[in-house]
Amino acid sequence: MNEIRVAFIGAGNMARSLIGGLIADGWDPARISVADPDREQLNAVAQLFQVHTETDNQQVSGQSDVVVLAVKPQIMNAVASAISAQIQARQPLVISVAAGIRGQDLQRWLGGRCALVRCMPNTQALVQSGATALYANDAVSREQKDLAESILRAVGLALWVDDEALMDAVTALSGSGPAYFFLVIEALEETARTLGLDAKSARLLAVQTAFGAAKMALESSEDAASLRRRVTYPGGTTEAALEVLESGGLRDLFQNALTAACERSKALAKQFGAD
Fold first, then answer.
1. Number of structural domains, the chain?
2. DSSP code, position 59
3. Same domain for 133 and 236?
4. By the 8 A CB rule, do 157 and 134 touch?
5. Do 138 and 244 reside in the same domain of the chain?
6. 31 with 138, same domain?
7. β-strand 93-96 against 130-136: which pairing, if any?
8. How far from the centroid of its chain's Cα atoms is residue 113's Cα?
9. Same-domain pairing of 150 and 218
10. Residue 118: exposed, middle, or buried by beta-carbon count in 10 A (0-12, 13-18, 19+)?
């Protein structure tokens, strides 16, 4: 693994989180390159990680075994098209972390068939606690799949899906999901303050409760419904609260919300993929 050269196109937050995770996992910074037109961004990355930086995307793409496309979806067409000759000549593994860009469109912009992995990291990758789903096209070898997984596991959980269409559901669940939980935390904090708690206490209690619940769910062999029942006593305070949430249609709200996010993901993929 130490012989693999990785290039990141884009020096934003997601690229930085992945680079930090890789170096923490033992990757040699000398084998990591970052390209971005923003020299200020590059200087910050170089100072943080001592990696090679370059303003020329073509330069790093033509010298790397893995090219990670970490740019905004709106500019992916232009970025991918500009490095297509280098990708076709070297045939590296290409990993896209851009939401809403379909593999067929990305391959077209990259000049044709190439080993491509689409993935959907979420913002928790910034604190090495991400949840990432990956999809590989049929040009990706077993070794390249292992390599892609090792890169994304540097920032949290990574799992494979075998149908690219499922990436829209992934976007709705884990891609947009952090915002759902932030909204719940926000609502808990606000209500706790109306019940008399000061702002600092309300925030700490809400955040720690969310963290603890997630930790229990991760470490338990029981499903979420079983864990919920274990902490809900007949006639108790939790039961009273849950009855209000259920009668208010919480499950329907989440179903409608995730469905809306999924449909929007499909629409954006169609929009971004248009010539």
1. 2
2. H
3. no
4. no
5. no
6. yes
7. unpaired
8. 25
9. no
10. buried
| CA dist., res. 124 & res. 174, Å (int) | 10
pTM to 2 decimals?
0.90
**Residues 153 and 24: beta-carbon distance below 8 Å:** no
**Residues 91-150: pLDDT tens digits?**
999 999 988 899 999 999 999 999 999 998 998 998 889 999 999 999 999 999 999 999
What's 220's domain CATH number?
A: 1.10.3730.10
Tell me the per-residue pLDDT of 184-212, one tens digit each, with 9 for 90 and over: 999 999 999 999 999 999 999 999 999 99
Alpha helix stretches (DSSP H) within 154-223: 166-170, 177-194, 199-219
- The side-by-side arrangement of strands in the sheet containing 66-69 is 52-54, 32-35, 6-9, 66-69, 93-96, 116-120, 130-136, 156-160
CA proximity to 85, closest of 119, 68, 109, 49: 109
Q: Where are the beta strands (DSSP E) in 23-62?
A: 32-35, 52-54
Identify any residues that bridge with 33 across adjacent strands, giving them in sequence order.
7, 52
